[in-house]
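---------- Forwarded message ----------

FYI, see the Iron ABC transporter record below. Original note from H. follows.
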Amino acid sequence: MPKHFATILVISFVLLVVCVFASLVLGSRMVGFDGVMDGLFHQDIDSYEANVVRKRISRTIFSLFCGAALGVSGALMQAVTRNPIADPSILGVNTGASLFVVCGMAFLHISNANQYIWLALVGAAITAALVFGIGSMGRSGATPIKLVLAGAATSAALSSLVVAIMIPRSHVMDQFRFWQVGSVGSGTWDGIFTFSPFLIAGIMIALLSAPALNALALGDDVATGLGVRTGIIRLIAALGAVLLCGAATALAGPIGFVGLLSTHVMRLLLGPDLRFVIPMSAISGAIILTISDIGGRLIGSPGELEVGVVTAFVGAPLLIILAMRSKVSSL
């Protein structure tokens, strides 16, 4: 067990509880303690504040679920690719999911989250396989820099296709532009129930894969010597990452950098052991996304700033710092 793990776990849970309470209280309309209690425990009270809290409950749970999914997805992608800056948004997986969703809107006329989710999963899976295949070309195999370049190139190409499909279809553009920014504001109980099986399945795959992924971090030859089937474990872990990332993207839109932020924070605090990093990345991802959502509400008051904009604003400088540190260390 990593040093101070119990302390970090307790602090994380306290932060999580504080974030949940703040999400219920803060926004364009502040809610007092009595209003929170009425909204949570007194369903017979039909005051304005109680109704606001009830609306925020589903939004908060949805935010926690999406943050946990993106955090674990980032940890899995970093482990599978052995790339410290791997993230669904950086490797283009979010863009692949977006392309399939916009194709569904344009050609199949879908507008239901239950239909979005399957299209997003297929798009995320195909894009992940494509990026890994391109990044693996050549004698050196799938190096971190090649995977990032492959992800950037693939994301740019798919983004062009998304624009090409939307421009001649104004009704698709109107529908897609709100989804594309990335938001948890539309979180509903139906969306939460739709998302839950994918979240549970993805996290279970991640936790069961963690010991083998630890061995994989030592190198393919060492992992094979320890009895790990490297190809199969990469495929299984990638499946878990795609389930989590694709489902979150389908329901909330392409929210970037949460997986990168949450996993790096936990690696810094706990070390490289994925048996601890993965579950703690779920908690830290939930905290990061919920804090970003609260910040977006306060910054954009009386409206709100979408959470995808907030995470990009915070995550982009981190990516630059990580890239600079990586370059310095390589010299």
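H. also flagged this: The chain is about 80% helix and 0% strand.
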